[in-house]
Amino acid sequence: xxxxxxxxxxxxxxxxxxxxxxxxxxxxxxxxxxxxxxxxxxxxxxxxxxxxxxxxxxxxxxxxxxxxxxxxxxxxxxxxxxxxxxxxxxxxxxxxxxxxxxxxxxxxxxxxxxxxxxxxxxxxxxxxxxxxxxxxxxxxxxxxxxxxxxxxxxxxxxxxxxxxxxxxxxxxxxxxxxxxxxxxxxxxxxxxxxxxxxxxxxxxxxxxxxxxxxxxxxxxxxxxxxxxxxxxxxxxxxxxxxxxxxxxxxxxxxxxxxxxxxxxxxxxxxxxxxxxxxxxxxxxxxxxxxxxxxxxxxxxxxxxxxxxxxxxxxxxxxxxxxxxxxxxxxxxxxxxxxxxxxxxxxxxxxxxxxxxxxxxxxxx
Length: 364
Fold this sequence. Notes:
Blueprint: H1 2-23, E1 48-49, E2 56-72, E3 89-105, E4 108-121, E5 129-137, E6 140-146, E7 173-182, E8 186-195, E9 206-215, E10 218-227, E11 232-242, E12 250-258, H2 271-274, E13 280-291, E14 296-308, E15 321-333, E16 336-347, E17 353-363
Antiparallel strand pairs: 1-2, 2-3, 2-17, 3-4, 4-5, 5-6, 6-7, 7-8, 8-9, 9-10, 10-11, 11-12, 12-13, 13-14, 14-15, 15-16, 16-17
Family: Belongs to the alphaproteobacteria porin family.
Protein name: Porin
InterPro entries: Porin_alphabac (IPR003684)
């Protein structure tokens, strides 16, 4: 009897083993489907969809190395005209990263833009910082970037001359809220409320208005800027004419007026002497760029200043000045440029300033 019970118990135990093993079986989960990055061709080359969203992102930028020199004949006990130390080589390395996010909405294009930048060398040397940051929805745009006084107008680049230095055109960055209307062709306009101090000084902003008209032949534009803290204004009109059957070649002519040494003028090297902006009452800038071959281009530019103001005032000095430049840009391979520029800067009663540089830039 005992032997029979023992055999039955052993058989029952063996029968239970497969059931226990089946209950403890390891189940391998199916892998989640991989969502590959998709190309977004709605906004041009380089954009891709952020996975899981309908936002398109583009990351671009460049690394640039520049070496130059300047000589200031006859200028003593004053800052250097070009901001560089004279009688020696001046080196500068810059790194820039642009992050551009765009998404189509029922209210228009939703966009944010961020520029990270660091520059080492003369005249500035510092860590990586946010150089520009802004958002826009449709025509509404706000943040910190180029002032509407110096920004490109629609589809025509109106930031001074054709060179990298661009001569003097009132280049500056501002905190702003603005409305843009129009496109790269036809009528384009901007009304911009801007703050030059960023310190909450008062409630009245500076005001800039821009209106332009552009077609395949080029464009015409006008600007007006009111400097609230100075209680002064500046105005500018310009035209660009594209050379027929020569892609990229064009002629540019811009005139400027300012009623004092405030934010809405051209600025100039005279500001290094007076400690102000360097505005003159009138200024005229002309520049021509020619695409010599597919990979080689060059430009010449000239700017004349009539009657400089004493620094930060409406007092006329009676001094005039001018600056001339020549530049060459060679792109031996895609996304790599070698650029050289030479300028001559002259102000009445001061010696002239000769400066130049060679730069190497890899864009991505």
